[in-house]
Design a protein that fits this description.
With 203 residues, the chain is of the alpha+beta class. 28% of the residues lie in helices and 27% in strands.
Amino acid sequence: MSLSIRDVSPHELDSVLALNNAAGSTILPLDAAGLHTLYEQSSYFRLAEVDGHAAGFLSAMREDADYASPNYLWFRERYPQFAYIDRIVIAKPYRGLGLGRVFYADVTSYAETRVPLLACEVFLEPRDDVSVLFHGTWGFQEVGQQTMPSNGRRVSLLAKTLCSYPFVRDTYLAGPGLPDLPWLAERGRVAPGRPPVRAAGGA
């Protein structure tokens, strides 16, 4: 199996939209305009390819995004710096291969060089025990709950402290900045037509 994790390109948004809306009840549906907003506001928006086929994606954004999600806003009201995982989708044929852990290793690698906290939520109504267990074993802890006004579904707000961030902040962010390496690059810092491919977890 050949696996790559790379930034989503604009021409791939139709494929991402299809992945999102085929994911089932644990992922809120999107229309094209909503996906475009998500794409524009996300500081991390990456696609998993397995043997050349789109297998899933993960989007995350920083605390300064212009994003109206009530769960994102819950974190912005309480934490000055964070990366918020808005959604992760794995296509059904590729579930059970560990892509969720690959994505979480990669987004953690992105976040821990920029912010002290990684945040997300899981649905409690209906309760998604697979997601609850996954996040618990990944080191997330519940920091609150709320009911989403759009659909009345209750969610658990989760956060994980990124222990490496103080070292990165004191050694690099407060001084020379991050090294100019592909796996540390922000979106858009690559040559046109050549989306970056990096090993999962930022290695």
